[in-house]
Amino acid sequence: MNEFGTKLRARRRNRMMTLKQLSEKTELSISLLSEIERGLAQPSMSSLKKIARAMGSSMFKFFEEQTETEEHPNQMTLQSKRYTALNSYTKEIGIVRAGKRKKLMYPGFPALFELLTPDLNRLIEILYGEFEPGFESGSEPIKDPPGEKCAFILKGCLEMKIGENTVRLGEGDAVYYPGNAPVTLRVVGEKACHSILVVTPPTF
Q1: CB of 137 within 8 A of CB of 185?
Q2: Taking a C-beta distance cutoff of 8 angstroms, is the pair 153, 120 a contact?
Q3: DSSP string of 72-140, one letter each residue
Q4: Neighbours of 161 (CB within 10 A)
Q5: Does 18 lie in the same domain as 99?
Q6: CB neighbours (10 Å) of residue 192?
Q7: Does 67 reside within a domain?
Q8: What domain range is 43 assigned to?
Q9: What is the CATH number of the domain that holds 26?
Q10: HSE-up (13 A, CA, CB side) for residue 176
Q11: Would residue 199 be called left, alpha or beta, if left means φ above 0 and alpha means ψ between -120 and 50 degrees?
């Protein structure tokens, strides 16, 4: 059983949830969920998000590294009123050190995400994504709740199918699109793709 399958089974049982109930919440078959828990099947990125949401969690909470770090190790409170006029926005400056980022790796996929925002309790989520040659998100499109997203390519080439539109992005290119648009990803060429992804509201 792989690490994700082990965590999934443990959390499902802790929540007194059956495979049937999880299947109803995720719209994934009971047989597929069972195989995922036993490490016999690798879920797509879309399936991973569905499972995390059904468990009342985020993908980072399933996958982040086990090393413990301080909750807010580098934060300074702003006193200026012009930064705190709207109470819904942050009142702190958060510094995320290069070696202290929360990391997310998909099982069976040559991909890595690192959280650039201090934690998961923000109005916006900024991620660094690294996709190795051959990466594909899976045949099932990723679809999140309504919102807005922007992807910026630092290196390499990434093909994205957003709804009915297919775009190919190279170094320096950016794309802005609805958060609830169905999306699939594919690395083009023999070089890794490095990118920055901005998401609001947070969905990872």
Answers
A1: yes
A2: no
A3: STTEEE---GGGSSSTTS--EEE---GGG--EEE-TTSSEEEEE-SSSS-SS-EEEEEEE-TT-B--SS
A4: 16
A5: no
A6: 17
A7: no
A8: 3-59
A9: 1.10.260.40
A10: 2
A11: beta
- Is 66 contained in some domain? no
Residues 60 and 104 sit within 8 Å (Cβ to Cβ):
yes
How does DSSP classify residue 161? E
Token pair of 167 as six digits: 């775009």
Which residues, including other chains, have CB under 8 Å from residue 15's CB and lie 6 or more apart? 55, 56
Instruction: State the Cα–Cα distance between residues 25 and 125, nearest whole angstrom.
Output: 25
pLDDT digits (tens, 9 = 90+) for 124-149: 999 999 999 999 988 889 888 899 99
The two structure tokens encoding residue 26: 């995720």
**How much is the pTM?**
0.73
**Which residue bears the tokens 């040659």?**
133
